[in-house]
Specification:
InterPro entries: G3P_acylTferase_PlsY. The chain is mostly helical and 187 residues long. 72% of the residues lie in helices and 0% in strands. It starts with a helix and ends in a 6-residue tail after the last helix.
């Protein structure tokens, strides 16, 4: 399916690398948690660059998803294109398959496919990040909430949301281990 490959390619553009280069900052994969995601950019370089990273990582897959929707793909096929975006972000060929954890990219994909689910999960993430001050906890709980929210708000996408959740949770295995040991970095 050509759109899945296009989704992968769009997803493999790591927004944090572009943002940090343009701002004259170092590669976030070489400092902090060594992850090219929003949380590491926030800890290293502040809110402005983290927000720019979030924006780029969320919107990068939207055009290919709109194309899939415009071509009349059924929900499961749209989800496969979205999964291509998330796999591209998590395992970008250009960066020796060292990518991010796909939380911001999953938000962007779900914003197109199941917007109410995305907004519920984003609100959950923001509330937990504010109260718990740990991005991993906010990400894990929000990801786990997504399938439940989709059953209620977007039942036709529940299967693909479960696949997105499985990928996000799998990408957080090291965070889960650090949380268990009590040494997961805060925000």
């Amino acid at each position: 399916m050509p759109l899945v490959a296009l989704g992968y390619l769009s997803g493999s553009w790591l927004g944090s690398l572009t943002v940090c280069r343009l701002a004259g900052r170092g590669d976030p994969r070489l400092a902090g948690s060594c992850n090219p995601g929003v949380s590491n950019v926030l800890r290293l370089y502040g809110l402005r660059l983290a927000f720019a990273t979030l924006l780029l990582d969320a919107v990068k897959g939207m055009p290919v998803l709109w194309l899939a929707m415009g071509l009349g793909f059924p929900p499961w096929a749209q989800g496969v294109v979205g999964l291509g975006v998330l796999l591209g972000h998590s395992y970008p060929v250009w960066h020796r398959f060292r990518g991010g954890k796909a939380v911001a990219s999953a938000f962007g994909v779900m914003l197109v496919l199941a917007p109410w689910v995305a907004l519920v999960c984003a609100a959950c993430w923001a509330l937990l990040a504010w109260r718990v001050r740990t991005a991993a906890v906010a990400s894990l709980v929000s990801a786990a909430l997504a399938p439940l929210a989709s059953v209620w708000l977007a039942p036709e996408y529940t299967g693909v949301v479960i696949a997105f959740t499985a990928l996000v949770l799998a990408r957080h295995v090291l965070n889960i281990q650090r949380l268990g040991r009590g040494n997961e970095p805060g925000l």
